[in-house]
Amino acid sequence: MTELTVATAGPISTAPVERTQVLSVRQLAFRKFRRNRLAVLGTVILLIMYISAALAGFIAPYGDRETHSEFSRVGPNGLHFFDAEGQFHLTPFVYGLDRVTDRATFKQVLTVDTERRYELRWFVQGAPYTLMGLIKSDIHLFGVEEGGKLFLLGTDSKGRDLFTRILYGAQVSLTVGLVGVILSLVFGTTMGLLTGYYGGWFDEVVQRIIEMTLAFPQIPLWLALAALVPPTLPSTQVYFAISIVLSVLSWGALARQVRAMVLSLKTSDFVRAARYSNASTTRIMFKHLLPSTMSHILVVATLTIPAMILGETALSFLGLGIKAPMTSWGLLLNEAQSVQVILELPWLLSPAVFVVLTIISFNFVGDGLRDAADPFSR
Amino acid sequence: MLAYTGKRLLIMMPTLLLIMAVGFFIMQLPANDYVTRYVLQQGQMGNSTAVLQEELMRQQFGLDKPPVERFFSWMAGFLRGDMGVSFVDSRPVTTIILERLPLTLVISALAFILSWGIGIPLGVYSATHQYKAGDIALTTVAFVGIGLPDFLLALFFLVIAFLASGQVLLGLNSPEFVNAPWSFARIMDFASYAWLSVTAVAFSGMALIMRVTRNNMLEELGKNYVTTLRAKGLPERVVIWKHVFRNALHPLVTMFGQVLAFLINGFAITSAVLNLPTIQSIYLTATMQQDVFLSGGILVLIAITVMLGNLISDVLLAWLDPRVRYD
User: Which of A86, B159, B195, B272 is most deeply packed, by most CB within 10 A?
Assistant: First the structure.
């Protein structure tokens, strides 16, 4: 009896509704993504990478073309907290470096002078740079006191700071795949929508072409296409040429998947409703069909980027990719081509660490997105 | 099934024709052809008379004719088994390819067997020991294998081999054996070199297969029939290998063609880095030197291999799984 009166009064009947939250599909997907630790870790790593690439000029202690000719082939000289006497310093420091000619062999030897210490400083003035083509500045995030040299990851044969070069290289390596994926996304999705919606002879022809692109082995064709790029082109055009080369083969797989989805969606009620309410074909395709395929497209795109980044690295490594004034991770690795060089200057391989980290992160994020794209499973 | 295979082979023909056309015309695109480059190069070396040869060389190579005509004569030759003559070392392309084919096939086959033979058991192991130390270690290795570019892997192995033996294991034989007939000593020497390139090529393929096997196995292990089997008291070995593994194999077979393409891709760059006498490494130099017939021939050959790989994987699937129907 009391129960009934309470129920009619209302406050309790709303209580269970308050407890069960109503989540949209997007929220569910986000929750599922967040539960995948590796995917979240990958996202964080990628965010850090892209942000540092965008702010390369600020984060890098030197300018991208700044050479320290006296200090070529210097190994990583890390920051110390304890000095030679074992005393602790709150501000980390580097030791002074000297180039001395060995009297006996006439070889240039690099010696570390533990007498001279240079402390780490924040926001130091250095080589001028332009951030994202907008902000001009010469303040660098960190550096050491006047006179000292800080080479976190060592220098190359021309005396350029490797850490700085890796940051600038990231601008190319991380974006070339992105541009390539966007190109193949736009082309692949449009083709998938058109062929799936219209069908007929057009579909047949495009399917044959796609079959061909799928049968083509990627790297050999990339090599052939990259060899086409004239060596005289300015480096920005080479950059775009390479991203086009990378996207030539990947649109096909995407177009196929979009087509398959469109084929099954074409007969669904909401598309029919749209058609009966006199929506134009373009509207049906881009307003009704495209959003339904979007989550799937996103997953495929994320999983395609790493292959493209690896492709760029390989092409640049072979000398067919990005060219000199520009720099990329593949081009940096190009210097470490022989066993001799690797044994002598092992730090030249450090860009590889960043390549591996990026590829793995993209794979993690892609896996997470794939699970999240279907938030109702399990 | 025979009808299906036949039909697939028929469909392959137009695709192949398209591949040949695209492959050929891509190589025609640069403004400078081989002869212009040759003359330029000779000029830089101080040989100014090369200009006089230009027309003659063009005629000799057939480069004076329009591209379409050249394509058809190339294709007609292709059907007769004549793939043209290499510009650079003026020998028939077929000879060059056949010369390098056996070693290429040996290395590819070894890498293929290695990647499947190791990848599958490791994948099964890491699925059955999910989140144990072994699985975590294997997963890390697999991700490094997928993330590390092939050429770096090759370099990495090269350095390790050097540190271990003090030898730079470039190529597939010691210099004194390169032109020697195949004897026991040469085979031993070959083995001491080949392990490096085979592992380098097989590694990323293995990583891929391991991951896919693991995922498939985990998916199957979660299904109800596994619980039933275990409840019936079947030994775990039988549950895994006789029931779960067989079901998990299905997507792996579909990957057959993909893994083949993967190996060929990886091989192209590894060959260049390790200086292997394979088809892929000469493909790279031929492409850079615009040796059209040689690189075109190899490109078509590789494309055929990938297409056959896809066909084999489809046929295998139909053979393994009676539920798959083709019309």
Answer: B272
Q: Find out whether A312 and A321 touch, Cβ atoms under 8 Å.
A: yes
Across B14-41, b (16+ Cβ under 10 Å) vs e yields: ebbebbbebbbebbbeeeebbbbebbee
Task: Kindly determine whether residue B287 and residue A223, on different chains, have CB atoms separated by under 8 Å.
Answer: yes
Q: Which of A217, A337, A352 sits opposite B302 (nearest CB)?
A: A217
Question: What is the pLDDT, as a whole number, of residue A6?
Answer: 44
Spatial distance between the Cα atoms of A136 and A133, rounded to a whole number of angstroms: 8
Residues of B in contact with A217 (CB under 8 A): 261, 264-265, 268, 302-303, 306
Distance from C-alpha of A144 to C-alpha of A141, rounded to nearest angstrom: 11
The residue of chain A nearest to residue B140, with distances taken between CA atoms, is A360
Residue B25, phi then psi, degrees to nearest 5: -75, -25
Contacts of B168 in chain A (CB under 8 A): 339
Q: Give dist(CA B288, CA A231) in Å, integer.
A: 12
Per CB-CB distance under 8 Å, the chain A contacts of B294 are none
State which residue of chain A sits closest to B153, comparing Cα positions: A352
Q: In what order do the strands lie in the sheet containing A88-101?
A: A80-82, A88-101, A108-131, A135-144
DSSP assignments along A86-122, one per residue: --EEEEEEEEEEEEEE-TTT--EEEEEEEEEEEEEEE
Q: Which amino acid type is present at position B29? A: L
ipTM exceeds 0.90: no
The DSSP element (H or E) to which B94 belongs, if any, is helix B93-128
Q: What is the pLDDT of residue A5?
A: 44
pLDDT tens for residues A244-281? 888 887 888 888 888 888 888 888 888 888 888 888 88
Look at residue A10 in the predicted model and tell me its pLDDT: 46
CB atoms B22 and A215 under 8 Å: no
Residues of B in contact with A355 (CB under 8 A): 147-149, 152
CA A250/CA A310 separation, integer angstroms:
14
Measured CA to CA, the distance from residue B211 to residue B214 in angstroms comes to 5
Q: Quick check: A220 and B265 CB within 8 A?
A: yes
Query: In degrees, to the nearest 5, what angle opens at C-alpha A330 toward C-alphas A329 and A333?
Result: 90
Using an 8 Å CB-CB cutoff, list chain A residues near B272.
Answer: 318
Q: What is the dihedral of CA A262, A267, A271, A272, to 10 degrees?
A: 160
| pLDDT score for B231 | 93
Nearest CB neighbour to B284, from listed A218, A223, A310: A223
Question: Mean pLDDT of all residues in chain A?
Answer: 78
Residue-level pLDDT at A142: 76
Residues of chain A with pLDDT under 50: 1-15
Fill in the DSSP letter of residue A349.
G
- The Cα A220–Cα B33 span in angstroms is 20
Please indicate, yes or no, whether the overall pTM of this predicted structure exceeds 0.95.
no
Q: Is residue A67 helix, strand or coil? A: strand
Give the A:B interface size as CB pairs under 8 Å: 116
pLDDT at A8 (0 to 100) = 46
Which stretch of DSSP H or E encloses residue A56? helix A56-59
Residue B124: predicted pLDDT? 92
What CA–CA distance (Å, rounded) separates A47 from B211? Answer: 25
* Residue B92 DSSP one-character state: B
Q: How many CB atoms lie within 10 A of CB A136?
A: 10
User: Any bridge partners for residue A161, and if so which?
Assistant: A155
Q: Report A:217-236 residues touching B (Cβ under 8 A).
A: 217-221, 223-225, 227-228, 230
Counting as low any pLDDT under 70, the low residues of chain B are: 29-32, 50-51, 172, 175-180, 265, 322-327
CA distances from A363 to A86, A100, B279 (A): 44, 48, 31
Q: What is the pLDDT of residue A23?
A: 78
